[in-house]
Amino acid sequence: MKHISTFLLILFAFTANAQKMNKKIEDPTKQRAILINQSTREGLVTFPEMKERYDVEYPAYQPDSLVIDSLKPLVKDQKITIVLGTWCGDSKLQLPHFFKIMDALSIPEKNITLICVDGLKKAENGLTDSLDIQRVPTFIFYNKDKKETGRIIESPQTSLEKDMLLILSKK
């Protein structure tokens, strides 16, 4: 009986955490449904407003293979936090490109944190308060010591992969 109780507690905790991911709300600022707080890649790319653009942009985007080869040794210890708006045109454009790059680099999803914000660029429970988010999407790169190594804000200067290489190759 004790094992069943323990199992149920674990199942409840897992279910409670799962409900926090991919949370949908009606955003009064944007007057539409959005995702808020942490999201999974699957939750993001299947959200109708994101899916429409993802289905076009992901297959069409061709990352620079030479840059990808240069990035491979640099990204292995990196963690990446992306703050985005499902309502934001730049987020809808850049996220499919980013995922195409991550797939080319074989970066596991566990190394990427996706945080969706509302029209005021806020998430619930102070989730983004310490990140100084002014525009979205914001891609924040952290090294193995959890120190921020750089950001790409809104749109890359050249391309996502070239801007990533510039950030990650700095000593």
TrEMBL record:
Leader peptide range in chain numbering: 1-18
Organism superkingdom: Bacteria
Keyword annotations from UniProtKB, A to Z: Signal
Gene3D superfamilies: Glutaredoxin
Database matches in CDD domains: TRX_family
Record keyword Iron present: no
InterPro entries named in the record: Thioredoxin-like_sf
Any Pfam family the entry gives: Thioredoxin_9
SUPFAM superfamilies: Thioredoxin-like (SSF52833)
Protein name: Thioredoxin
Species per Swiss-Prot/TrEMBL record: Pedobacter psychroterrae
